[in-house]
Structure formats: structure tokens, C-alpha cells
Design a protein that fits this description.
alpha+beta; single chain; two-stranded antiparallel ribbon; 9 strands
Length: about 250
């Protein structure tokens, strides 16, 4: 018996049920003299930067140490769960962000590298991570304060890791896991309805083809979309977002 290859889960997902947004890196100078975004990590998602213009870098912390990866138009950089990453502005840097698992990084799968005392207090962490609604000066000021606090914690992690001490970095990973633990049921639902359903649908289509029953092709169609908010304040920079199911889930930080 051939399983049903018709769409299931989230309607009309992008290929692979990825998330998508566009970013212009912040040009605010941080305490170390570097202009860029808020360092953070994701717990269950791989994320990719596809550079569409300008230049810059992404700084990463992971078990293989500290890296400074140059970014230029046409280059791609991606990082797996647990990798701390910081987007650095070098001049008009603009990227398209591809996010695993139906945009989970925009649905809470991100923890900022705030100092340990902030990470240890859930209420204090939530207050530091939140932004006021909108895209005005108040939101910009809050986003910059959030960035500065994340850089403060990040610089300590980086200094220790470069010196050969990975304990602060590993403790940050554990603290991040504690912060997001209660969100796992919601994330599991998004994964089942998005990435998992998409993969299972491909399996059903392969079964149908093997059985000589390509009737599902009768439902072929095309879709289109345009950004629904321009210039929002993301973790790394100003963000253009799409209100597509399972793609960018805007305003979670607000």
C-alpha cells in the first residue's frame, strides 16, 4: 500500500522547511571596538549565512576553538548547534539567513552570551533578552543594550577559550540548555509539522513513484511571497521578515 504523498504539516513550506530572513549587520561599535551583532548560540538548529553584499566576518566559539571567518559577497558560512556566533560588520554587510527546522532560531532557539549572573536568573535573562515592540528609537536603544550585554559575556568566553580554558564555554552551553528546556514541547511540535513532515512527504512521493502512481503531481503549483516587515531588530542586525508558516516567526524577542 502506498502512503499518502499529499501535503501534511505546515502549509506550503519552503524547501526543506527552512526558515528565511535577510539581515543588514549592525554598525554599532561594541566595547572591543568591533561593530556587529549580539553573540548567541542555537541549541538544535544549524544556521547559514549567505552573503549577498558587502563584507565582514562571523566570529565563532566552539570545541575547536575561536575562529574569525571572513564574509564577502557570494560566500557562505554555517554553524551547527552549540556554536557561539557573532556577526561582524566590515562595510555594508548584508546576508540572507537560512535556518533549520522551520525557523526555530526565530521561535526561541537562541540564547545570548550574557554574563553568568544574568544566565543564572531566568527572570533577569528574559528581561535582558526582550525588546519593546516596533522599530523606533526605543527599540533600537534596547537592541543595542542587549547587544552590549551579550558582547560583555562573549568576550569573557572567548578570552578563556583562546587561553585553553573551555570550562566557561561549556558552562554557558549548559546554562543555555537550562534556559530553553521548557520550550522543547513547542519546538517538537514545530519540528513534526515542518521539517519532519517535509521529509516524510518526500518518502511518500518516492513510494508513489516506485509504485507507478504519480498522481500527487496533479497538485503541483507555485507560490510567492514578499517581506512583511522591513528593518526589524534581530539578534545580528536589522532584519527583513516573511510571515510564512514555519519560516520566520517574527517579533518573538519583542
Amino acid at each position: 500500500m502506498v502512503s499518502d504523498p499529499r501535503p501534511a504539516g505546515l502549509p506550503h513550506p519552503l524547501p526543506g522547511a527552512i526558515g528565511l530572513s535577510h539581515l543588514s549587520a549592525y554598525d554599532w561599535e561594541a566595547a572591543d571596538g568591533v561593530c556587529g551583532g549580539s553573540p548567541h548560540l542555537h541549541l538544535v538548529c544549524t544556521e547559514a549565512y549567505v552573503v549577498t553584499g558587502g563584507r565582514g566576518a562571523v566570529q565563532t566559539l566552539s570545541p575547536d576553538g575561536y575562529r574569525d571567518i571572513p564574509l564577502a559577497a557570494g560566500s557562505i558560512a554555517w554553524f551547527t548547534p552549540g556554536t557561539v556566533h557573532r556577526m561582524v560588520q566590515g562595510g555594508d554587510l548584508r546576508i540572507t539567513v537560512l535556518m533549520q527546522n522551520s525557523g526555530l532560531p526565530e521561535a526561541g532557539d537562541a540564547v545570548f552570551t550574557f554574563p553568568p549572573e544574568v544566565l543564572a536568573d531566568p527572570d533577569r535573562y528574559a528581561a535582558a533578552a526582550a525588546l519593546p515592540p516596533g522599530t523606533g528609537p526605543e527599540t533600537a536603544a534596547a537592541a543595542r543594550r542587549r547587544r552590549d550585554l551579550a558582547v560583555e559575556g562573549y568576550l569573557g568566553l572567548r578570552e578563556a577559550l583562546v587561553a585553553g580554558d573551555d570550562k566557561p564555554y561549556l558552562e554557558f552551553q549548559r546554562a543555555a540548555a537550562r534556559i530553553v528546556r521548557d520550550k522543547v514541547p513547542t519546538w517538537r511540535k514545530l519540528w513534526r509539522e515542518g521539517a519532519l513532515a517535509t521529509a516524510e512527504r518526500t518518502g511518500a512521493q518516492l513510494d508513489a513513484l516506485a509504485a507507478g502512481e504519480p498522481g500527487y503531481l496533479g497538485e503541483a503549483t507555485a507560490h510567492e511571497a514578499a517581506p512583511t516587515r522591513l528593518g526589524g531588530f534581530g539578534m545580528c542586525g536589522r532584519r527583513d521578515e516573511y510571515a510564512l508558516p514555519g519560516t520566520t516567526l517574527p517579533h518573538w524577542q519583542e
